[in-house]
Amino acid sequence: AQSVSQHNHHVILSEAASLELGCNYSYGGTVNLFWYVQYPGQHLQLLLKYFSGDPLVKGIKGFEAEFIKSKFSFNLRKPSVQWSDTAEYFCAVYNTDKLIFGTGTRLQVFP
Amino acid sequence: NAGVTQTPKFRILKIGQSMTLQCTQDMNHNYMYWYRQDPGMGLKLIYYSVGAGITDKGEVPNGYNVSRSTTEDFPLRLELAAPSQTSVYFCASSYSIGVRTEAFFGQGTRLTVV
To answer: Which of A12, A22, A34, B60 has the greatest number of CB atoms lying within 10 Å of its CB?
Structure first.
């Protein structure tokens, strides 16, 4: 069965620090990949998505992710985080009608 | 455009009671999903549907039932509530992946079973 792993469970950063959150998936076929963000008390919102083409994907709020097929990875990055980026981040893989999520990474950004 | 609407937002149930969580979408999406979210566990897929009249089990279907009689509605039924079903439940919808779109989520239902 396909699965998604997020190894960073809780990340604490100061404002202006760089961010990289890891995401690995287990499925070897064609996959579609997503990063969602959940701000405190809110529902999930899409940050970015990858379907095909350029493996470097840019999303909203300065986030980007790189799809590396050989490593089954889709890591999320941001060069300089802000306090408002405090949230939980979820990686997800879409294949054969199912959208499967990782366990999430809680990001706290301190001023 | 309302998107995905879930009701109720909050509910407290006693052990053994039953209830239905409602989910409606107005985007004419053919795919719909139910997830539960528990701290540190991410979102787990309970059931999903690829169209009216078609449903299938996800990762954690035990204790739940669904139906999909219309494109718009995808209710989730808990027949005999148990404390292990205390969670936040999210409904989502999307077009099929062939049209390259993401899933849209409802605001969630926070359920407590006591």
So the answer is: A34
pLDDT digits (tens, 9 = 90+) for B16-46: 999 999 999 999 999 999 999 998 888 999 9
The pLDDT tens digits for B43-84 are: 999 999 999 999 999 999 999 999 999 999 999 999 899 999
> What is the distance between the alpha carbons of residues A32 and A53, in angstroms, rounded to a whole number?
11
**Mutation for A interface: B97, B100, B104, B110, most A CBs within 10 A:** B97
Sign of the CA dihedral running A58, A61, A62, A68: negative
Whether A32 sits inside 8 A of B100 (CB atoms) is yes
Contacts B43 to A, Cβ<8 Å: 44, 90, 101, 104
Distance from CA of B99 to the nearest CA of A (A): 10
Chain B CB contacts of A103 under 8 Å are 40-42
Rg (CA), chain A: 13
- The answer to whether residues A107 and A15 touch, using CB atoms and an 8 Å cutoff, is no
